[in-house]
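Both lines are given unchanged directly below:

***
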Amino acid sequence: MDDYIKKVGQSIDDAIDFFLKRINEISENGPYRKSRKMPTTFPMLKLGNDEFYEYAYFERTLEWFVRDLLINTILHDLFTIHGIESMWPDNKNYVRYSTEAIEDVCPFEFIININGKKIGVRYTGLCAGEATELMEKYEIEKILQIKWDDKLTSREDQQEEYNVVTPAEFFENYFSTAEYELFLSKVLPAIEAANNEIGFETIPRLSLRYLSNFKADVSMFLGNAAFDQMRFQVLPGSKEKKPLASMTFSAVDYEIMNRNFQERGLYKALLGTEGFAKCFVTAEYQFQVFKQGHSFDYTSVVCGYLKAVEQLLFKLLLINLDFPSQDKLWIKKNNSNIPNYKYMQDVTVRQNPITKKPQVVFERDFKDYFDITLAPMIWFLHDNVNGWKISDAGRLVIHSFLLNFAADCRNDHFHKDNIDDFGVVSRIRNNAILIIYLLLGGYKLTGSHQNDIVALGIDDDSFDKMYKKIQELPRGMSKFVVYFEGQKPIKAYRHYTQEPTIYDDNGSVAASKIRFVAVDEFGSDEYDRAMQGEYREREFTLRKDNIPTKISYINGRQEEIFIVW
């Protein structure tokens, strides 16, 4: 068995060596390196810049090489080793074809013969009716589509003569699990090496469409993160003496903070309209862009997280001014002189009992005299002992985190160092997100959830979520049932032609709408009439000001599937 696996491994290694050799030829060491661009029919119209067409060239070439030089070469050798007859098309003349394009010309990557039963194998899907035609034309008894994904999300399209399988299932059926694991262990590093050799990464432009989708991903992360498992990460070289990495909160404190931050949706403040939200989203975008890079200066990424925390702290101070505490609170005084008519010792100004530095009363009339640098804001929250929803022990832990964040993350790194260690960036990001969760989840804010939403700049994103869920469904999914409060369910066809999505400056689709046509019953004739405009009086739109309580669609099995958003 060891000799057998060794033979398979050698076959895979040979394919990888040739694959990487070809990659090297088209990257740095091959001729005409500077002309490696995908040709376009309309260059004068500038559909994309030079970098786009260079990336398109390498992306298409990499798909071609992976398919023909790696996957198909390895499978061909494995069939030979296992004594399985396989037939392969002569497609050497089809240079740089995508897999979909090559399978339009040669419908099967290969055909195998198992005990006289011919099976055609391809990597892309087929439309309804195509399988039967191909089986008759090529005189085969079955078609397998290998879907090169970690897992299959649906088995709805499975038919007796046309099956969709994962690579793992294919290997298990014709080779072995051990060979599949060996295949992955060697091929994945080879493809990573090829990507590094080509040296091309796409950096998505933060367009309004991409911003909208990016913020949806960030929202999903924040709304589902296990913050009770997250720990503060002390930076290398820190002089911190407290065991911050092992400090946690009581179960009751976590319950309070999770309820406020996640269940009540205060995490959406990080995607809202306030300045701290813009800093956070920008930092997250840069973090995702640069996390695969090497030897960059990541100071700009860190700056975003630091500013997000700093601006959130200032926002909490402003909320305290708008919704004042019954306690008399003090904050460090700045260098501005207070007019004599406002200056009243121990009434409007005083010495800090511990530091002996001047403080000013925390009232709106004295806002111009507040020291709103990071440390005084941190100490203000500490001194506002009745301003927290969590335990006093929890308040003190948060204070320790904030002091370390100010000293190590901000002062020690932001001012005098270039940050070229991405591990440091990851730690600062972790600490910033944890601190924001603790502040929004544990501080009292306005005292009213509705006022919290307004004060933190949180937009109602329910329409955005519903809109994206519906638009993700294929156009062919046309039958819907719409439920409005106090009304009978409405059977409706989603209109085939929809208006373009409208994005605002924050990436929201709140100004968009989805067109429907109400019908009495679903039927092919009804659909045609609705799409041809015969029922214009029954057309309606879902908009931000017209959101149903529930909506469902009818799938291919005539099952009603409710959309959750």
In short: The CA atoms of residues 484 and 548 lie 5 Å apart. The first strand starts at residue 85 and ends at 87. The chain is about 45% helix and 10% strand.
